[in-house]
Amino acid sequence: MIPIEKKDRIYDRDERYSRQIILKEIGKKGQRKLFNSRVVIIGCGALGSTIANNLVRIGIGFVRIVDRDLVELSNLQRQNLYDERDIGLPKASAATDKLRCINADVEIEAVIEDVTAKNIEKIIGDMDIVLDGTDNMLTRFLINDACIKHDIPWIYGGAVGTQGMSMNILPSKTPCFRCILPNLPKAGSLPTCDTLGVLNSIPTVIASIETTEAIKILLDKNNFNRHLIVYDIWTHEFHSKNIKKNESCECCVKHNFQFLKSELKTSIIKLCGTDGFQITPASSNKISFKELKQELESIGEVSIDEVLLKFKIKNYEINIFRNGRAIIYGAEDEKTAKSLYARYIGL
User: Fold this and answer.
1) 129 located within any domain
2) Residue 3: is its pLDDT beyond 50?
């Protein structure tokens, strides 16, 4: 029985997790295994924030939270770790601060970065499982490539409108994501929270499914789900679809990791559900916030914290991270966003 000291109080680990230790599915042995597990959540929005909350409360020993975005007012409708005080803060750090107050027993790491072909393998390399909380397909194809390559299980999850879906992907044991979708869907071909909306109860359900399946996989249970689950919370329609392995799959059969081989180039992405554009430069160079502030404060409003330089000019807001990545609000299109980046930061 290991006590956990925090300030002037002592927390008994057996007592903290007592209600799940008595479950025959977990027990003391299972709880110890969970505490020795390492999990990464990619994306900390509606899905990811609920997954993170669940994993930290059940006592996963190490949780890495990766997210590129800042908290916005429209997020509060469904992203349950944030409140009005967090608006404008990086999601990964805001979530981490909240979660550390919930369970000091868990080591939590915030990674405030976009997931790209350049960093995905480093992000997942020392993890036992990867959980999907992202809102875009390109990132999922990257996760799939990296997890198949490094033999790491991952769990796909998505929610839009009143419907959500999830599927476990275990290298060599199940079909992979590209067995479902061989190629990246064309832009505009799939609904998004921006175009269709999202009911705040469906991400909670899908995130809970992801969490439960992750527990099974981490505990080496054989009864993990092997199908694609699709659930509509409004109509209560539930489908469990059998997905067959594509024997000519470029990823899990041929091991042709096309998305990991992407050429280095400046990336510009329209962010889901907002008027923001993200720009990630081809090469990451650490920016001196002090020097950049001196250059910008004579032409606009500048504020700095540990991870972010926020620059406001006219109707634009440019949020700059130390690695050169920026989120730009108010730009009418990609061309304008790129122009603003070049003008005030430099490409």
Assistant:
1) yes
2) no
